[in-house]
Every structure is written in C-alpha cells, then in structure tokens.
Design brief:
The complex is a heterodimer. Helix content of chain A is 71%, strand content 0%. Chain A is an all-alpha fold. Chain A has a single domain, classed as MetI-like (MetI-like fold, Orthogonal Bundle). The longest helix of chain A is centred in the N-terminal third of the chain and has 34 residues. Chain A is globular. The two termini of chain A are 36 Å apart. By secondary structure, chain B is an alpha/beta fold. Chain B has 2 domains: 170 residues, Periplasmic binding protein-like II (D-Maltodextrin-Binding Protein, domain 2, 3-Layer(aba) Sandwich), CATH 3.40.190.10; 140 residues, 3-Layer(aba) Sandwich (D-Maltodextrin-Binding Protein, domain 2). In chain B, the strands form 2 sheets. In chain B, strands 6, 7, 8, 9, 10, 11 and 13 form a 7-stranded mixed beta sheet that branches. In chain B, helix 2 links the parallel strand 1 and strand 2. In chain B, 52% of the residues are buried. The chains are: A mainly alpha, B alpha/beta.
Chain lengths: 570, 325
C-alpha cells in the first residue's frame, strides 16, 4: 500500500540510467565469478555417472565434511549469538561505565586474522605454551591439546564472529523507540518485562541478520578449521575443497567447482531463510530519537562489569599475551625468560628486505578503497532493494551473498579464470596486479557492507519520504535530506566492517597475490606455513596494534560525525 | 609550448629507459619466502639486466594456480623452482615444459636431472625422523615409529599438501620392507597427519607430538636456534626431493629462463644453497652445519615416472586411510 502511494506521488522518479548502471555493476560483480564456476562444474555433465558433480555428490566424504561444516558453524554461531547479544544488550541498554572501551575491546577479536586467532589460542593451551611454560603451569609433555577438536573449532569460530552479531544488534538498539519504553517503565513494568516484551521482539530481525552473517562467515572460514581440524583429520567443506585442489589431474578444477557449487547453494539457502524471517518480522521504526537507553542496574552494575571483563580477558587478553610471548622467543619450544628474551623476530620484520611493510601498505590501500567504494554502492542499492522490492531484485540480493559464502580459495580460482586473459576491448591484463585483488574484494565484501544498510533501510518508515514527496521534494532532495542522513550510521558501520574484514583477509589473496603485491594475511600465512611461528606471531602483534591505532584515530574523528556512525562510540 | 614538449620528452625518456634496459622474468617457486628472496636477489645481482617477478606458494597451491591460469589461457611463468620432480614430471607429460641442455649439467649426478633437460635438481632435501628432545625413545629406524610405547605420539606431513611428503610416500611404497602396510601400521599406532612440514615441526617443538616425519633442514635450522628438536637419518635410508628448476614451454623470456637455470646450477648458485642451510646438489661442495657427512646419508631409490602414475592412487589411499572420521 505504502509503496503504491509512493509511486503515485513520485513526481520525479529516480534517474533510470544511473540505477541500471548500478544494477549492472552489482550483477556483474556478484554473478560472473559464480557463473564461471558453474560453467566449469557442469562442463562434463554429459558424462552422467562419471561427471564431477555426480562424483562429488556420491562421495561419502563430501557428506561427512558437510555435516562437520554444519556442526562447527552451528555451534559457533550459537556462541557468537550469546556473546554478541550479551555484550550488545549490556552496552546498549544499561548504565555500565566506560562503554566505549568495552565496545572497542570487544571488536578486536574480529580484526585478528583467523589463523592468528587459532595460533594464539594454540599458544595459550597445550604443552608447548610459552606463557604457561614460563610460569610453570603447562600440561605435561605429549598430552593432547583440547583445542584440536570439533568443539575447539566451534569455540574459536564463535569468538571470531561474535562482533558481527554485536554490530548487527547495536545498530538496531540505537533505533529503539524510547517513548514506549519510558511509558512502560512509568506504568511500572520491570526491567525484565521491558526487555522481554519490548526490546527483544524489536531486535528479532537484527538477531536473525547477525546469526545469518555469523553462520555464513563460519561456513566459509578456512584459517581456524585448517589449523585445528587437519591435525586430527576433522575436515569441513572448505578444507575438503582445498584438498581436492591438490590432485593435479585435469578433472581437478571441475571437482573443486562442483564442491563450491554445493557450499554456495547451502549458503544461499541460509541467507534466503534469513530474508524470509526478516520480512516477516520487520517493524518500521523512525530513525534515532533522543539519547541512548541506560537502565539503572544498581548493585548489579559492578557484577555485570566484572562478568564482561572476565569474558574479554579470556577471549582477547590471554590469547594476545600468548601471541606476544611467542614473538619474543628465539624459536618455538623455548620458554620465555630473561635469558631467552629476544627481539630478533621484531628486528627481522623491520629489515629492508622484509615484505611486511609493503604488505601492510597493500592491505591498507585495498581495504580502505574497497570500503569506500562499497559504501557508495550500497546506499542506493539498499534503497532500491527496499523501495522497489520485486522478485528479480530479491534474486539479485541473494546473488550478492554468493561471493562471500564461497570459500576464498574458490572465489580466487573463479577470478583467475575470469581475468587471466587480457580484458576484452581494453587489452589490459589484470593478473599480477593489485586491481585483481581489489575486484575480488568488491565482489566478496559487498554483502558485508550492504547488510547493515539494508537492515536500516527496512526499518525506515516510508511515511517520511511520502510526506517529503507530497511537499514537492524531488528524488535527489528526498535522498539527500531524508534517506542519506538516516542511513549514514549504518553505511559507515558497514564500510568499517569491510575495512576490518578485508585488512586481514587471507584466503582470496592467497591465490591472487604476486611478489610485491602481497597482503598482510598472505605474509602471516606463508610465515606460519614455512614453520616460522615466531615471526608470524610478531607480524600478527604488529597488525593488531596497527588496527587498534586506526580504530583510535577514528574515535578521534568521531565527534565530527553523526551519532552512531562509529560503532564503539555513543 | 616547446617547454612542455621538452618536459614530456624528458619524462618519456626517463620512464622508458629502464624498460629498454631490463627484461622481466616471472618465477613461480615453493621455496620458503626468505630463501626465495635471497635466490632472486643474488640472481638479479649476477644479471642486472633481468628483473625477476616472483610468486611463492606451496607446491600444491602453485600448481592449482598454474592450472587455472592455463585453463583460462592467460599469463604463466617463465621458470619454475618447485619442491618435487613428480610435479615436474606431470607438467612434462602435459607438454608444458621446454627442454634446455644447461652447460652446467655435466657436473651433476645423472640421477638428479631429466636426461632430455626438462628439469634439473638443485638441492637434496631428505625426509627423516624428527623428535622432541624430551621424547622417551630415540628412534633410529622407520620401524621404531611403530613401537607400542610410541602410540599416538607421531605425526607426519600429508601428501595432499606437501610435495616432499608425496615423494616420501612414493619412495616408501617402492621399498618392499615398508610399503603400504607401513602406513596402515602407522595409522594403527595412532599417527595423525598434519598439513605440511611446517605444521609437523610446530607440533613437535610445541610439545604436542613427540615424533614426526620431517624434512631435514627445518629441524636442523630450528635446533640451531635452540628449539628442543633433534633429527635422525633412519638406517633404512631417507627419501629425497631435489627442488628442480625448469623452463616453461611458452616462456615469454626464454633467454632469462635459461640464465636463471644456469645460475642456480652454477658454483655461486650452489654455494648460496649451502649458505641457506640445504644440502647442495653439487656433490663437490661440503654439507651445511648440523648435517652428517654426505656418504653417511643413505638414499632410498626413487622413480619419478612411476611416482607420477601412482600419485593419484597413492593420494586417494592416503586420504581414505587418514580421511574424515
């Protein structure tokens, strides 16, 4: 009904040409890689029983891997939901102190590359722990490390992706209607009543969105299951794909493509389910009103702060300490003490031959530019998806998720297949340049940026646009004065997410990099793979420190930006 | 106006001079990053007219990348320096390599290079047994890893990830005393594969595993840094990978590729290998520190062509035995 009114009242519609260009870009970015893979997967379909798709589907190891993927991602998502929502509710609704610091620290785990997370937790437990050995608490030699298990993988996936749930919820909590809540409080409703009857139902869509993005991220995660699963022969789908890559027969590419099609279908299923839930429960709210909520916790305040502090200590401080300790020993297996302490790894990182700085610059340039471009793309796109909702657009929205849900290695192969040859017409070859990684990032992270913007757009009451339209505002005026200011916080949060995910990204660039064009994730992985865990730890510590500095710089800028733009500021 | 033209001309001249003077050579290598950088720097110093663009990755991923690039008909490297001769043999079968008879070849044992000159071994990386210094038993032979008191304490690199592990498997399969049954017994004794050799070493030095099948230089290098690890060359013998160098058939810079091959096989190139802590392929050079004398290392026989035909079934058997549980 409201859409009908909008269409009738629109005296000047959106500029059609621009919208078509936008749609074409998005469709090309999202669909081309997957279609190229599909073509490769189905190349030999005529062979029936011996075609790659059939061979992959009829292999029992595929289904075991699928089950493992579901189990670890499901359990991990559950943990992400618990951690993320506890933090979001405590920080978004109560009067606990030093909120900015809490948010800041809670966001950090996501910015640590997954393989570094795995590395640091492995350094923390187990008989080889430098930290535990140095204080004499390490478990006895040869005892198994409990992290090498399905539950270990799920635990780390949960910690890694909890900030995604947190961010999805936080944006929503900022838009809660304060009037109803205050009215309920005035009428004598308890905090719990308000929470369960008003806050929770209003956050349902955000919870679904957070869970879906956490699940899909866990499904495509390679670093954590690779480091924790392979040593105990517990394989998830991305690992299965990676192992298939190792057979160098001509059927390798189509087998890999077939497995990728499977994981793609799976992820699309999950995301469409989330879309259905979101539409069913969408409740339009009017932007941000007044100050943030802060329920008085009274004597529970200290207890809550201790709880949050304890959780953060366990999931962030301890692994980081383990990482720092590892970066200061001459080699793995040597305890850290005054005699063994060395800065050799740190020194070699600053060598003139060292790739670390170059890689850092590359990663920064790639992730910042990808974040900016995607922010500009997702604003009009979200508007289009919501105001002109139709079946083809919904399909397009699902397609946008595909490059993110494919394991990075697979997306990289698709991109190689697409861009190895010089571009038609232009005769420019992209292989071996940063541009090819940039394009892969645009395709992969569009959904990360779009999610919060789209979510925010869904909650935007069309009444305001209608009113403006009736008052004679044309399309660009409505966009500039109503839609943009209301979507800005979500757009900025989305861009920030892209930056933080891309800066540590590994699996896509792992196949696309070349010397001089490496990313920081590649440097860490290569060091780790060649057995140099000490230097890998030192580079990781540097990355975490640099990302923290970037976040602090943004906080400094925060006062010049609209409210809610920087997720860890009120 | 004329000033502008002059400026443009000067700019063009400065920009294009290096392009005329230098040719580019694209190298794909599976050497560890630091070693690859050393090799490239030394080569560029010897040949200032050639600029090397290089890509480093595990042999498996490198081959995947190559296959994808070839399938798309796009850019490919000029020269390869990768872990094992089986991969080279496979590329040769696919008619992707070019034969080149290097003048340096005559200094080498005929077993170390392809007779027609498709690829040349550059060093000897052996696979033996590494163990944690706190390990209860000091192993001396491959059979020792099957002892019941070593149950659940052994790890090995997977041939699905590592070229060296693949060769090791092919070598053991050739040995009637070991063979496939050896792997089955290892599995029965609780051995668990890691991904590559780096992971095996970390598992041992961190104390998660006491024994591991491992390449020599990693253990010997880390031991020198103080890691609690020791390495033994088992008495039945060790398997070797030769890290061969080869030139691609469709190389854009064939002269550069030939120069690169000659360089790694030259005395200077082999001394660099020694300096990096590997056993040089040139038998007249000494062994690096920490290695026993050359003649005390027993090599098990190996047949690259047979290893290639068996590669797929071997990997399949391995992944079925140690596969998803």
């Amino acid at each position: 009904m409201s859409i009908m009114t909008l269409r009738h009242a629109t005296s000047s519609g959106p500029p059609k040409g621009l919208l078509w260009v936008l749609l074409c870009i998005v469709a090309l970015l999202s669909l081309l890689p997957s279609l190229r893979l599909l073509v490769t997967a189905l190349l030999d379909w005529r062979e029936g029983g011996s075609s790659s798709l059939w061979r992959v589907l009829s292999s029992s190891s595929t289904w075991t891997a699928l089950y493992h993927s579901f189990y670890t991602s499901g359990l991990g998502t559950l943990l992400s939901l618990i951690l993320g929502s506890v933090f979001a509710f405590c920080l978004g609704l109560t009067n606990i102190r030093m909120k900015q610091m809490w948010v800041f620290l809670f966001m950090l785990p996501m910015m640590i590359p997954p393989q570094v997370t795995a590395l640091s937790w492995l350094q923390l437990f187990g008989p080889g722990s430098i930290l535990l050995n140095s204080i004499g608490l390490a478990p006895s030699f040869g005892s198994p490390n409990p992290l090498y298990s399905a539950e270990g993988i799920a635990l780390l996936l949960g910690v890694q992706h909890a900030p995604l749930v947190f961010l999805a919820l936080r944006t929503q909590l900022h838009c809660l209607p304060k009037e109803q809540i205050e009215a309920a409080r005035l009428n004598g409703a308890s905090l719990w009543r308000v929470f369960f009857d008003i806050v929770l139902p209003l956050c349902r869509t955000a919870l679904w969105a957070g869970a879906a993005i956490a699940f899909v991220s866990a499904l495509g995660n390679f670093g954590i299951p690779a480091m924790l699963g392979i040593p105990v022969s517990y394989f998830v789908l991305p690992i299965q794909i990676y192992q298939t890559l190792s057979s160098f027969g001509p059927s390798m590419l189509s087998d890999v493509a077939a497995l990728s099609v499977l994981i793609g279908v799976l992820a699309i299923g999950i995301v469409s389910l989330q879309g259905v839930m979101q539409r069913r429960h969408a409740l339009p709210l009017i932007g941000m009103a007044g100050r943030a909520l802060d329920f008085q916790l009274g004597k529970w305040r200290l207890a809550t702060e201790v709880l949050l502090g304890g959780v953060l200590f366990a999931i962030l401080v301890l692994p980081l300490l383990a990482l720092i300790a590892t970066s200061l020993v001459p080699t793995l297996g040597v305890p850290l003490n005054a005699k063994t302490l060395t800065f050799a790894a740190w020194q070699s990182m600053f060598d003139s031959e060292s790739a670390t700085w170059r890689a850092l610059t590359n990663s920064m340039v790639l992730s910042v530019s990808a974040a900016l471009v995607l922010m500009l793309l997702s604003l009009p796109l979200a508007w289009l998806l919501v105001r002109y909702a139709s079946r083809p657009l919904r399909w397009l929205q699902n397609a946008i998720d595909i490059p993110y849900t494919l394991p990075g290695v697979v997306l990289a192969i698709a991109i190689i297949l697409l861009f190895s040859r010089p571009l038609p017409l232009l005769e420019v070859s992209l292989s071996g340049t940063l541009t090819i990684i940039f394009i892969a990032y645009l395709a992969r992270f569009l959904t990360v940026c779009l999610k919060p913007v789209h979510n925010s757009m869904l909650q935007l009451d069309p009444a305001m646009e209608e009113a403006a339209s009736l008052a004679g505002a044309n399309f660009s005026q409505r966009l500039r004065h109503i839609v943009l200011p209301l979507l800005a916080p979500a757009a900025f949060a989305g861009a920030l997410l892209v930056f933080l995910t891309a800066v540590n990204e590994l699996t896509v660039s792992a196949l696309l990099w070349s010397a001089g064009k490496e990313t920081i994730g590649v440097v860490i992985f290569n060091l780790d793979e060649s057995g140099n865990k000490v230097l890998a730890s030192a580079v990781s510590v540097l990355v975490v420190a640099l990302v923290a500095v970037v976040m602090l710089l943004l906080s400094g800028l925060g006062r010049f930006l609209p409210k809610g733009v920087i997720p860890w500021q009120n | 106006m004329s000033k502008k033209v002059t400026l443009t001309a000067v700019l063009l001249a400065t920009l294009s001079v290096p392009a005329f003077a230098k040719t580019t050579l694209t190298l794909y290598t599976s050497q560890p990053g630091e070693d690859a950088q050393m090799t490239v720097s030394a080569f560029e110093q010897a040949h200032p007219d050639i600029e090397v663009k290089w890509i480093r990755d595990g042999t498996t991923k490198l081959t995947a990348r190559l296959q994808a690039e070839l399938a798309a008909g796009g850019a490919a490297p000029d020269v390869l320096l990768i872990a094992d001769s089986v991969t080279m043999e496979s590329l040769k079968k696919q008619d992707l390599l070019a034969a080149y008879v290097s003048p340096e070849a005559k200094r080498y044992d005929a077993q170390l290079y392809d007779a027609a000159g498709y690829y040349y071994g550059t060093k000897l990386i052996t696979t033996g047994i590494a163990y944690h210094t706190k390990a209860p038993v000091k192993p001396a032979s491959w059979q020792d890893l099957l002892k019941p008191e070593l149950k659940n304490m052994t790890t090995l690199p997977s041939p699905l990830y590592s070229g060296a592990a693949q060769i090791h498997m092919a070598t053991l399969m050739n040995n009637p005393q070991l063979g496939w049954g050896y792997y089955e017994k290892l599995k029965a004794n609780g051995a668990m594969p890691q991904s590559g050799n780096g992971a095996v070493m970390s598992a041992i030095t961190s104390g998660n595993k006491a024994y591991g099948v491992l390449v020599d230089y990693m253990a010997i290098r880390e031991k020198a840094k103080g890691a609690p690890i020791d390495f033994v060359f088992p008495k039945e013998g060790v398997s070797i990978v030769t890290e061969p160098v080869a030139m691609m058939k469709n190389a854009k810079n064939p002269d550069g590729a030939k120069a690169f091959i000659d360089y790694v096989l030259s005395d200077a190139g082999q001394r660099l290998v020694l300096k990096q802590g590997y056993l040089p392929a040139d038998a007249s050079l000494p062994v690096p520190e920490g290695f026993p004398p050359r003649d005390s290392i027993k090599l098990m026989p190996f047949d690259a062509a047979k290893a290639l035909t068996d590669a797929e079934p071997n990997k399949k058997r391995f992944s079925d035995l140690f596969g998803n549980k």
